[in-house]
Amino acid sequence: MIGKEENVAFPTKNLIIKNDYDEFELFVSEYFTRFADVIATSELCKGNSGNAKKQLYANIRKLNRKHYFDKYDKIIVFDNMTAVIALLATIRHKDRIILWFWNIMRFSPKDYLKLKLIKYFCAAWTFDFADAKKYRINLNTQFYPLIACSDISEATTDLFFVGLNKGRKPLLDCIEKVCQYSNIRCSFVVVGEKKSDGSIQQPINYSQVLDHIKHTKAILEICQEGQTGLTVRAMEAIYFNRKLITNNDTIYSKKYFNENNTLIIDESNYDKIADFLQQPFYGFPDEARKYYSIESWLERFDTKSE
Q1: Among 60, 108, 159, 229, which is most buried by a count of CB atoms within 10 Å?
Q2: What distance lies between CA 173 and its chain's CA centroid?
Q3: pLDDT digits (tens, 9 = 90+) for 15-27
Q4: CA distance to 52, 153, 227, 270, 285, per residue, from 241 (Å)
């Protein structure tokens, strides 16, 4: 069962502007509607101008003329500095705008100048401690919709990974060989890579990802180089009560992650995977799911602390 969060009268009025380019984005947007109004970035770029950036500015000005933005206490924009700059150029109450980086920040010099301009007028936030420190912006946690846990006894695989290559394929191949040697049942979905039958792995819907998670004992998270923030895979481990295996060596500093529920791996300790999977698992506490919920994530924007 998905969706334990109930519709609530949130104390502040929020607007979320974010992408909707895949099923996972739509999945998250659906839950956001319980606490906020949601506009897809693609909707703001629709029009007849033939130029997405010009259309974005034009549509924001049109909404502003109708006083659309006046009713919101927070306007949270995901990963889109152009949209934030358009809002800053248009609306009066610039302090209501929040730029949220939901991905690792890989900036060109031009992007960095944009961020400096934005920070002068409104707040910028990220989920990643290293990026928060490097770019001197605020830190919030990762988040996930509240979801009912499924029974671990339903597991038909021991370890599940899904994601793009992003330079992680050699590491995944090494882990897969270790798993095969130890008779660990693993299911690795590496999108865009060649499968054993010679075909190319196509993207899978997020509903299929959830089905894999419901039928595995543990989730494998391989972070990008330099990443310290929690990924969606870590959130899925909490909300579906699955063990987590990760190369994020900072994860024990995050709330509710410890040696009982999480194994930190590197090239020197892959042999520990089998023992970790066989150890008793006491699950993540209910307060962990509350802490990383969308509702708590929204509230933390008022505290400037993780």
Answers
A1: 229
A2: 24
A3: 999 988 888 888 8
A4: 42, 11, 23, 22, 9
